[in-house]
Amino acid sequence: MSLTRRQVGVAAVAAVPLAFAAQGTAQAARRPRTLYIAGDSTAAQKYADAAPETGWGMALPFFLRKHLPVANHAVNGRSSKSFVDEGRLEVILGEIRPGDFLLIQFAHNDEKVNDPARYTEPWSTYQDHLRLYVDGARARGARPVLVTPVERRRFDAAGNAVPSHGDYPAAMRALAEEEGVALLDVQALSLALWQELGVEGTKAYFNWTETEQDNTHFNPPGAIAVARLVARELLRTRVLAPRDVRRLDEGIPESWITWPEAAA
User: Fold this and answer.
1) Catalytic residue among 210, 250, 255, 261
2) Is residue 164 among the annotated active site residues?
């Protein structure tokens, strides 16, 4: 069932910490602006047991100046709904401060019709849940940024890269326009990049190994390429200024990607 705008607004307001008004400005002054990521496995931090799988959020800091750190809260397998239901958005909203940014990328798992814990419908519950992120960030003086889902590696018989996310990107674009939110159209940009690289060339960007042929998740070159798209879009949309970004046209060594041991 679709959430009403009133329900969405009440949920966002209810999550605001009571001490925010008194503490927000002082706390923001004690640390730099931070770029938060809420998303799924395509953006998430990966650990040693998952290497060489790499989320684009792991590579994004290479394109940002050191005064703009990244707090990557993306987690494998989450949808816009399950991320909220598990309290993960609440954690972000408890940390985020005025002047920060919240990048919001979901759809891969929202599409799972047979999983009621994760499924959302593009033109109703998907948009309703995305509003929780948008309204929550704005209530804390932070800037929400919608990010259309990065495309999977999928080609037709003629070798054309084909979209895989149905109406979800269009629904996010419509919501961004309706709410006046900055939009990074990574779905369109990644689809164009996969078309340019072709059927064989894209294998070098996805998590293809001797034992696995993964057309959804990235290896280091793929994560770096998608993070570059995100950084360029952050600059193009004027979410970030030129002083905030770096290396947009430089090569990034794969060796810069590391996979820490998972916490016990």
Assistant:
1) 210
2) no
pTM: 0.88
- β-strands 101-105, 35-39 pairing: parallel
Q: How far is C-alpha 251 from the geometric centre of its chain's CA atoms?
A: 22
DSSP string, 134-175: HHHHHHTT-EEEEEPPPPP--B-TTS-B---STTHHHHHHHH
Q: What is the pLDDT of residues 163-198, one digit of tens each?
A: 999 999 999 999 999 999 999 999 999 999 999 999
**Do residues 252 and 59 touch, judged by C-beta distance below 8 A?**
yes
Burial letters 123-132, b for 16+ CB under 10 A, else e = eebbbbbbbb
Burial of 112 (0-12, 13-18, 19+ CB in 10 A): middle
What pLDDT was estimated at residue 29? 52
Q: Does the active-site annotation cover 217?
A: yes
Question: Is the predicted pLDDT of residue 2 greater than 50, yes or no?
Answer: no
| Cα–Cα distance, 86 to 71 (Å, whole number) | 18
Whether the CA torsion 166, 171, 176, 177 is positive or negative: it is: positive
Task: Let me know if 179 is a catalytic residue.
Answer: no
Name the average pLDDT for the chain.
91
Q: Which of 108, 129, 165, 217 is catalytic?
A: 217
CA pseudo-torsion sign 1, 73, 148, 136: positive
> Residue 262 above 90 pLDDT?
no
Distance between CA 49 and CA 93 in Å, rounded? 30
Q: How far apart are CA 62 and CA 57, in angstroms?
A: 10
